[in-house]
Amino acid sequence: MIFDTILVQVHGNVGLVTLNRPEALNALSKQLISDLVKALDKLESDDSIGCIVLTGSEKAFAAGADIKEMQSQSYPETFVHDFITDGWERVAHCRKPTIAAVAGFAVGGGCEIAMMCDFILAADSAKFGQPEIKIGVTPGAGGSQRLTRAIGKAKAMEMCLTGRMMAAEEAEQAGLVSRVIAAENLVEEALKTGQSIAEMPRPAAMFVKEQINRAFETSLGEGILYERRIFQSLFGSPDQIEGMRAFVEKRKPDFQFKK
Ligand code: CAA
Prior knowledge:
Number of helices: 11
Largest sheet: 6 strands, mixed
Strand order of the largest sheet: 1-2-3-5-7-10
Helix content: 40-55%
Distance between the termini: 20 Å
Bound molecules: acetoacetyl-coenzyme A
Order of helices and strands: EEHEEHHEEHEEHHEHEHHHH
C-alpha cells in the first residue's frame, strides 16, 4: 500500500500506520484522512492482521487539522460538507483493536485521533493538548467529549479553555495514556503490545473492545448485561474450548482465530 501522506507496513500480525507529513507536523489534511481511511479499510479486511498501531514522527504524532487548508472555509461550507466528520471517525469505528503510539505533539485533531484509538502508549516526549481556542474555534473531532471522559472535567476544561499542553507523565497520571515509554523504544514496544493482542483469540479481543466502549454509551446495569451476554456467548466457541482445556492440561493454547 503506497500513499502520499502515510506509510503502511505489516509487522507480524500488526498493521503499522505512520502519519508522514513532516513538513506540517503531520497536520491532518483531507488527503491524509482519505489515505488513512483507505489504509484502515485494507488492514481491517486482512485476516492476518489482529491489531493496528497508529503512530507519527519523533517530533509530532499530529499537530491537528490542517489550519492552512481549512482557514478560508465558511460556515455553510463546513456544514454542507460536514467538515471533520467524513473519514475522521474511521479510527473510532475500527473493529480490530487499535493502539496510538504517540511521540511529540498530539494536539487538536491529533489528540482527538489518538483518543479514538483503544489506548495510547506515550513516549516520554509526548505532549497532548486541545489548543483550538487559540485559533478561534473549539475541539471538533470529539476532544471535548473523549478528553473529559478520559481525564475528568477539571483538567479537560482547563486544557480546552487555556490550550495548555499536558506532558506524558501528567497524561499517564490523569489516565489519558496507558503507559509512558522511552521515546527510542516507543514503536517497538507498541508493535510488541500489538502482536500480543493479535495472538489472542480474535473474537474475544474484538468483544473486549466493544464491551469497554459500551461503558461510555450506557448505564451500568445495561453495560453489565451486555458484558454478561458476550461472556456467555463465547462458551462453546473453539477458542474457549481450547483455551480452558490448555489451561487444565498445563500447555500453551493453540487458538484457531488468531490469524
Ligand atoms: N496545520 C497546518 N500546518 C501546521 C499545523 C497545522 N495544524 N501545525 C504545524 N504546522 C506547520 C507550521 O505552519 C510549520 O510550517 P512552515 O515551516 O511551513 O511554517 C511547520 O508545521 C512546523 O510548525 P512550527 O514551526 O509551528 O513548529 P513548532 O515546533 O514551533 O510548534 C506546535 C509546534 C506548537 C504544535 C505548533 O506548530 C502549533 O501550535 N500548531 C498548531 C496546533 C493547533 O492549533 N492545532 C489545532 C488545529 S484545529 C483542529 O485540530 C480542529 C479539530 O478539532 C479537528
